[in-house]
Amino acid sequence: MLNNIKDNSFTLPISNIEVIKQLIPHREPMIMVDGLLNFENLIARGTLTISEDNIFVEDNQLSETGLIEHMAQTAALHTGYKFKAKNKKIKEGMIAVIKSATILKVPQVQETIISEVCITYETEMLTMVTITTTLHDEIIATATMHTVLKD
Questions:
Q1: Cβ atoms < 10 Å from Cβ of 6
Q2: 141 Cβ partners below 8 Å, 6+ apart?
Q3: Which of 64, 72, 117, 146 has its CA 20 to 30 A from that of 42?
Q4: In the chain, what percentage of residues exceed pLDDT 70?
C-alpha cells in the first residue's frame, strides 16, 4: 500500500464520484468506474453500478463494449491512484492491444459489477494487465490487455 496520500478523501474504499474523477482522466459521459474498493501495488478492484443513462446501455443491459471499457478504466483507476500517491500528474491513456477477452454475461441496469485488475508487466508508459469482472461473485468476463499512457 502506498502511504503518501494525506487527503482523507482518498481513504479506501472510495465511492465518491468526484474523488474518482481526480484519479482518472475520463469525463462524462465516458466514466465507467464509480468506486475503488482496494489498491495494492499490482492489484486493484473497481466497481460500476449500471445506470439507465449510461451511453453503453442497450435494451436495459450494459453492452460488451461498455464492459470492456469498464475493465480498461479499472486499469486506469489503478494507475491514477498510484500516481496520486506519488504526487504525479494523472495521465491520459488508451487500450493499445486487447490480447484476449471473454464475455460470459453482461450486467443489467442497476446491477453492480466489480473488476479486479492485476498488473503483469509495467514500464513508465506501458502496462500489461489481466482483468476479471464479477457480478454477484460470478465471473462474467475476463480480459488481457496492454494499455499505454500518453506522454
A1: 8
A2: 67, 68, 71, 101, 102, 103, 104, 105, 131, 132, 133
A3: 64
A4: 95
Please give the angle made by the CA atoms of 30, 34 and 37, to the nearest 5 degrees.
140
Model-level pTM?
A: 0.93
Task: Return mean pLDDT, the chain.
Answer: 94
Question: Which of these, 11, 81, 9, lies nearest to 41 by C-alpha position?
Answer: 81
Residue 51: partners with Cβ closer than 8 Å, 6 or more residues away:
57, 109, 110
Q: What is the CA radius of gyration of the chain?
A: 14
- Cα dihedral 94, 2, 16, 7, rounded to 10, equals -120
Cα gap 94→139, rounded to integer Å: 24
Domains of the chain: 8-149 (3.10.129.10)
The amino acid occupying position 101 is: A
Answer for the pair 63, 57: CB distance below 8 angstroms, yes or no. yes
Distance, in Å, from the CA atom of 5 to the CA atom of 112, rounded to the nearest integer, reads 27
For the stretch 107-126, pLDDT in tens is 999 999 999 999 999 998 99
pLDDT reading at 12 higher than 90: yes
